[in-house]
Specification:
This protein has an 8-stranded mixed sheet, with helices on both faces. A two-stranded parallel sheet has the order 7-10. The chain is α/β, with parallel strands linked by helices. It contains 12 helices and 10 strands. Helix 1 runs parallel beside helix 2. Helix content is about 50%, strand content about 10%. Helix 1 links the parallel strand 2 and strand 3.
């Protein structure tokens, strides 16, 4: 049995990004998979669960494996049981940490492991072990970077009480609404990660408790890494010792901390981004400018939202003023928001560098749009009779569509040109 001092963080790695995904090289001298079982005061269940896991892997896993018991500061007989399993089973290793914290245990063991694929699962084995091979297979093949078990997938089969069901769904709903996550189940204790990903991702993760894997998933998703989800069969352990209220409080604090760091750009996610060329969307196509399709989609979405905002503002201002007076401030306010949204979402420009210049150039584009819409209103005024409010809106929509096409061309060629030296998310300098 080993006793290791918990690491504050894995050794700092090169800022160069990851190589393209490849099938894991199988080395007969080392395990391909290291399954970590973090435990704290689990003397009653530890031996039964580890032997069951060992038997399953010995029967079904086609490569060498290791099971690492990560005992984090247990005060009962857990260290003795872990040491006994270490002696009895060749593929089982016990590691003792003197500080409590599941996240700290995972960080320490994953940092020390030589296996190219790392996984962890709760000691109660609530998740059906038949999902273990589907969990790690995409990582071994090179298809994915991380993998998670999901109890909330449509084909999952879950047995648990209404209280835990509500808490789990509420937590994942908070994650989706606050951090815009797309993975379905952050809390399932059944996850895996490639070693090369963990080496670059773990130094960015601050949490040492239950929030570590959620934080790791959020950062991985924001960095553009591929997360594979496996529907699982899961039966709740009624004897679980997790303190729900304390854990939920810590998780909410973690969500706030990560959200603030992402909003301020404090996390260097370019350190773990995939290289240019690994994503087929980054490959150059003959006759198609790089990123054009994605930029068109982003610009259309931002444009649609900006048009709705503009029409609402125009309708509001029109209640007390004439059409020309209402048009100018409505278009100005929507144009400022449009430029800011396109800057970040469509053209991927990050940081404050040249932000004022971009807004100034956006105002020039706004002036062109103002001329088009104001001219259309002036032409409408020359028509016989008094046009209805619906007619005004129809004319303005047509004028805005014409201005939108011109706006995109000016944004792409003049305001946010790809060769301007401005750092963008699509810039290869951020992915090499």
């Amino acid at each position: 049995m080993r006793t290791d001092t918990p690491l504050e963080a894995p050794p700092e790695t090169s800022l160069q990004t990851l190589p393209a995904r490849r099938h894991v090289a199988v080395d007969r001298g080392r395990p391909v998979l290291d399954v970590v079982v973090p435990v704290h005061n689990e003397e009653a269940d530890l031996e039964r669960c580890v032997r069951r896991l060992h038997d399953h892997l010995a029967r079904t896993f086609p490569y060498r494996f290791r099971i690492t018991i990560a005992d984090n500061a247990s005060t009962d007989r857990t260290p003795d049981v872990a040491a006994s399993l270490d002696d009895a089973l060749e593929e089982v290793t016990a590691v003792r940490l003197e500080q409590k914290g599941r996240g700290r245990a995972l960080r320490t063991v994953w940092s020390l492991s030589e296996a190219p694929v790392l996984a962890y699962m709760d000691v109660d084995l609530s998740t059906d072990l038949n999902a273990l091979l589907p969990l790690v297979a995409p990582l071994i093949s090179g298809h994915s970077d991380l993998a998670i078990g999901s109890r909330l997938a449509r084909s999952s089969r879950v047995v648990r009480g209404p209280k835990r069901e509500f808490i789990s769904r509420a937590y994942n709903l908070i994650l989706r609404s606050s951090l815009a996550t797309r993975f379905s189940d952050a809390q399932c204790g059944f996850k895996a990660i490639r070693k090369d990903i963990a080496e670059r991702l773990l130094p960015l993760v601050e949490d040492t408790g239950w929030f570590l894997d959620t934080e790791m998933l959020v950062l991985a998703e924001r960095a553009g890494l591929r997360i594979h989800e496996v529907p699982v069969d899961w039966v709740d352990d009624p004897n679980s010792t997790v303190h729900i209220v304390l854990t939920a409080t810590d998780d909410l604090k973690g969500i706030w901390r990560v959200g603030r760091a992402l909003a301020t750009g404090a996390l260097p996610l370019d350190r773990v981004r995939r290289p240019f060329g690994d994503d087929p969307r980054d490959r150059e196509l003959s006759g198609v400018p790089g990123g054009l399709a994605r930029q068109l989609v982003g610009f259309c979405v931002v444009g649609a939202l900006s048009t709705l905002v503009y029409l609402l503002l125009y309708t509001l201002f029109r209640l007390g003023t004439g059409p020309q007076v209402a048009n100018a401030p409505a278009l100005l306010l929507s144009a400022l928001g449009n430029t800011a949204a396109n800057r970040r979402l469509t053209f991927g420009v990050r940081g404050r560098d040249r932000a004022v210049r971009h807004q100034a150039q956006g105002l020039v584009v706004f002036g062109i749009g103002l001329a088009l819409t104001s001219g259309s209103l002036a032409a409408l005024d020359t028509a016989p009779g008094t046009p209805s409010h619906g007619t005004e809106l129809a004319v303005l929509i047509a004028a805005n569509l014409a201005a939108t096409v011109l706006r995109f061309l000016l944004f792409r060629a003049w305001v946010f040109p790809s060769d301007s030296g401005t750092t963008t998310d699509d810039d290869p300098r951020n992915t090499r």
